[in-house]
Model the fold of this input.
Amino acid sequence: MSVNKEIKRITTNIIQTMKQKGEKIAMLTAYDYSIASIVDAGGVEIILVGDSASNVMAGHETTLPITLDQMIYHASSVVRGVKRALVVVDLPFGSYQGNSKKALSSAIRIMKESGAHAVKLEGGVEIRQSIERIVTSGIPVMGHLGLTPQSIYKFGTYSVRAKEKEEAKKLKEDARILQETGCFSLVLEKIPAQLATEVSQDLKIPVIGIGAGPHCDGQVLVINDLIGLTNGFKPRFLRQYLNLYEQINGAVASYVSDVKQHNFPNENEQY
Done:
């Protein structure tokens, strides 16, 4: 008789309890079934199906071109590969800004069609109504402040945000508003470490940083950057754990050489 070991699914409640206990939260992106399966087995608590798929999967310069349908496709692929982690999906640009009814409709589509567990929205007080509608409908929402890539043309640069007093003050206010509105957690991207520390200490909900220093409640990176698939991209906040670009490049070159020199397939690699 076989015995199936039950795997405990990570929930928003577990994530919030981790903050209360002082346990760090590990979060990574994934965009497809195969990588999601590996990332999940590696032990992360949260997998983000990021709109960064627009960059690393589709080759766009920004996150803006990716559509809701495309995000649902990526999210569906990820969900099928995940047994334990909480799967959060970015609402893409144009699917929630300025229209709370559209925001709710987009969030519902993601949840129903992909099987994901939560959605993530960029922005502060300006998207409060959208978050309220989504949370009221029973869908968990993760916030995102600091460098918000969907606003890159407004910022004009990917440099560190909230270095000035006024912007830092607004970020703190927005963080409190997101918590009050019902967000279960918050991402802070590319802001001064001291400011991120203050926000993390101020909020009851978990704060997950990317380029925001070590004192957030958790950390997130883009998986393609972490494993070195993104050649030449090495910002200060990135720790690259592998260099798969070089390894895959070398493997392909070896394969090409073997084919050209009649070394593949050999006698043991045929029927």
The chain has eleven helices and eight strands. The beta strands are 25-29, 46-49, 86-90, 118-120, 141-146, 185-189, 207-210, 218-221. Residues 148 and 154 are 10 Å apart (CA to CA). Residues 243-271 form one domain.
